[in-house]
Amino acid sequence: MVLRVSTNTGQWKEPASKVTHSLVNVRAIINHFNPKIESYAAVNHISQLSEDQVLEVVRSNYDTLTLKLQDGLDQFERYSEQPKEAAFFKELVRSISLNVRKNVSLNTLSQDLLLKEFSTIS
């Protein structure tokens, strides 16, 4: 999808091109190991490989993997205690809190039920 957007004209062309460029190594890893894993499964007559079997394939074929050295890895944005997105998330949490206060009546729930409800939130 990103590749399609990056080849079209429009406001998202440049960000999509950056994402496409960033995914070069991810695609290289997938394109390198998928055939090796499928071949291992076919040779050993296995339909579902275990984690250990996949790790074995990766370890035995890692030396033939070629990755592209990314530019600009030595440059980074310094960590900020107050990142630029903080205002957005502060407003989002405030909105959610107000919505919950407005739509959920805590008085009608017993403390046990309330704690049980909150313990299942993931």
TrEMBL record:
Origin superkingdom: Eukaryota
Report the locations given in the UniProt record: Membrane
Which keywords does the record carry?
Membrane, Transmembrane, Transmembrane helix
Q: Which Pfam families match?
A: ARMH3_C
Tell me the ranges covered by the Armadillo-like helical domain, including all copies: 1-104
Record GO cellular component, one term: membrane
Q: What is this protein called?
A: Armadillo-like helical domain-containing protein 3 isoform X2
- Native organism is Salvelinus namaycush
